[in-house]
Every structure is written in structure tokens, then in C-alpha cells.
């Protein structure tokens, strides 16, 4: 019977990676359940030990603009958003409205979950700020 243990530290992680590699290289059908279990344990440990920082929405927009060789003026034309409005958003002095988020998602193909990322207690949607102020 093969024993698979929970990975609790860097030593366990290194040894699990080594064991996984050996099992994969051995290429035996009977090792597949152990390979699957080890892979899940390694993935779980790595998510906890090496978390990936959330992507800043403005940095994501700037990155995609660079990838597509877009200037702010070109982005304004493609999204039908004013150049000044885009500049304010990219400088961090104006929040993204829902229409801006939709336009950036469509034109730059940035996932919505990246564009909707907000710090605790903040709102990205300017329309929400006026709620209750009638």
C-alpha cells in the first residue's frame, strides 16, 4: 500500500515533488491514483505557501495597452471613452464605471474579475456612490 502524506513544510514539498517526478517517469498505470493525490496535495500546499498577489486593474489595462501598442488616444477611440476620462482612470484619480469596465473588458480582453477588483470597502462603480443621495 502506498502512503501519501499532507505537505506541511518545504522539506515535505521538495520530497513530494521528487516523488511525483519519479512516479511520472516510471509511467505505470497503477501509479495514476498516487500521482493524482500527490498533485492535489502539492497544488494545495503551493497555493498556501506561494500565494499570487491580486492583479491591479489599472496595471492590467496599462499592460494590455502596451501589448497591443495602444496609446491613450487610440484606446479612447476604440472604447468611445474620452481621452481625459481615460487619463484620469489610468492616473488613479477617477474610478472605473460599469461602462468603462465593460469597454476595457471588450476591447482589451481583460477578465471582468480583474477589472472589478476593489480594495475592502471601496466601490468601482460611480453610480453606486450616488445611491441614497436623492
Topology:
Layout: H1 10-26, H2 32-49, H3 57-67, H4 72-79, H5 83-91, H6 98-108, H7 112-115, H8 126-129
Helix pairs in contact: 1-2
Protein described:
The chain is an all-alpha fold and about 130 residues long. It folds into two domains: about 10-50; about 55-125, 434 Repressor (Amino-terminal Domain) (Orthogonal Bundle), CATH 1.10.260.40. The chain is about 60% helix and about 0% strand. Helix 1 packs antiparallel against helix 2 (about 30-50). Residues about 120-134 have low confidence and may be disordered.
Tally of individual domains: 2
Give the class-level CATH name of the largest domain. Answer: Mainly Alpha
Low-confidence stretches: 119-134
Element pattern in H and E: HHHHHHHH
Major sheet characteristics: none
Count, helices: 8
Mean pLDDT: 87
Distance between the amino and carboxyl termini: 69 Å
Mind telling me the CATH superfamily name of the largest domain? lambda repressor-like DNA-binding domains
Alpha-carbon Rg, integer: 23 Å
CATH fold-level assignment of the largest domain: 434 Repressor (Amino-terminal Domain)
Structural class: mainly alpha
Shape: elongated
The total strand number stands at 0
Q: Roughly what percent helix?
A: 55-70%
